[in-house]
Amino acid sequence: MSAETGALTDSHCHLAEDVLFTQLPDIIAAAKQAGVSRFLVPAVRRRDWERVIQLSRLPEVCAAALGLHPWFDVENPADDLAALAQALQQHPALWVGEIGLDFHHATDAEARARQTQRFVAQLDLAQQYQRPIVLHHVRASAAVFAAFQQTGFKQGGIAHAFSGSVETAQLFIKQGFKIGIGMMLLNPNAKKLRHAAAVLPLDALVLETDSPFMLRDAVNTPANVRQVAETLAQLRGESLTHIAMQTEANLNRLFLKN
Q1: Is 12 annotated as a binding residue?
Q2: What pTM did the predictor assign?
Q3: Which Gene3D superfamilies has this protein been placed in (predicted)?
Q4: Which helix (H) or strand (E) holds 134?
């Protein structure tokens, strides 16, 4: 991507994962070659946090987030939440994430209750320290919005890996969220997502890969944001330059809010 076309940001990449972290200079160089110059890096487990904080010091990392992903139960939630609060106090630029609810992964009432308890506690911290969140939500939109109401959370953030309807996206937008459009957009069968990406206001969208995940037989990398941007441009009938400029502006507004 040329300077005239504009640079892109991967608004969700797990650079702390070993498969990326151990070859980080090459990963960043390949991304820049594809026109991807910035990265937002969330954590998923407490053991990631120190590495994510380390990554946050890189000039290419425009934001980083610490949190407890809904997939991973923790032995001592109170201790982890206290550590998260301390980290947010010490690092004023950190977001909270990746946090949320995944009712596809948690199928029974007890597991869903544990997820919800951790999510609500992390929302409370995000609201207390006025930080945006990186939101994971799968088959749980109603419960997510109920948690927002319960906690009074109003800091917004990114609804990561969105795959839902236009109507659900509009509810997130009203809550101050940008809609994360990722690798699923490349699937011609993802008709609901493709329709939403085509008709939602462009000023509500950001681009992501969720690397190193989302590809069945290969390691996903931030360079693939270029493919997401190109596909979005085709679906909307807009230029790649316009997509790049607007999605970058959308992210920058979130950063200014923080």
Answers
A1: yes
A2: 0.96
A3: Metal-dependent hydrolases (3.20.20.140)
A4: strand 133-138
Closest CA to 35 of 227, 251, 238: 227
105 is in an annotated binding site: no
CA distance 249 to 243: 10
Residue 125: which region, alpha, beta or left (left: phi > 0; alpha: psi -120 to 50)? alpha
List the structure tokens of 21: 């972290």
Checking if the pLDDT of 4 tops 80, the result is no
Residue 75: pLDDT over 80: no
Residues in the chain: 258
Q: Is 98 annotated as a binding residue?
A: yes
Query: Does 104 count as an annotated binding residue?
Result: no
The sign of the torsion formed by the CA atoms of 67, 70, 74, 79 equals positive
Determine if residue 14 is labeled as part of a ligand binding site.
Answer: yes
Mean pLDDT, the chain, as a whole number?
95
Confirm or deny that 160 is annotated as ligand binding.
yes
Tell me whether residue 242 is exposed, middle or buried, using C-beta atoms within 10 angstroms of its C-beta: 0 to 12, 13 to 18, 19 or more.
middle
